[in-house]
Amino acid sequence: HHWRHTKETELSKFNQTEIEAMLGSYTKVLFVRDPFHRLIATFLQGMGSSPSFSSFVQDVLSSGTHNASVAWKPLVSLCLPCLIQYDYVVMFGFHGQELGHLLRRAGLSVGSLLPEFTDTQVLWTYRWLSEQMFSELSAQQKKKLSRFYRWDLSAFPFSSSFLSD
Fold first, then answer.
1. Closest to 152 (Cα-Cα) out of 68, 70, 35, 62
2. pTM of the entire structure?
3. What subcellular locations does the record give (predicted)?
4. Chain-wide mean pLDDT for the chain?
């Protein structure tokens, strides 16, 4: 197939037959992260020009889902989990155990390929950051964010997300 030798990486650049052939021949792994954690990370990396987290969230909400940056766009619109049957879904915060399982399934040596993950520390840090950042938001912003990410919250098990309430 010529698609094996092309530089294109977006599925939308291929026709339906090529897409089905590719998706049928690969092990599909989806990495997902709590949408509120994605917002925090984007804000802390300075990807928004807002001076406060609250004003950054307002900018995100004002952008709408169609004009949203890939950094905060809802995952269901980026990875199409309803159309693509992923073989594995790896949750951020559980990389250590889940990646080890994936590598073993692929017949690879886990010890030599995996860096040391500190999932517990990552989860604790994001829990603390979430509490701090969430407290900066108005009740209206919290409600709008939950609505903005409603499909992500329905599609993936983000039960401890601050946006799930």
1. 35
2. 0.76
3. Golgi apparatus membrane
4. 82
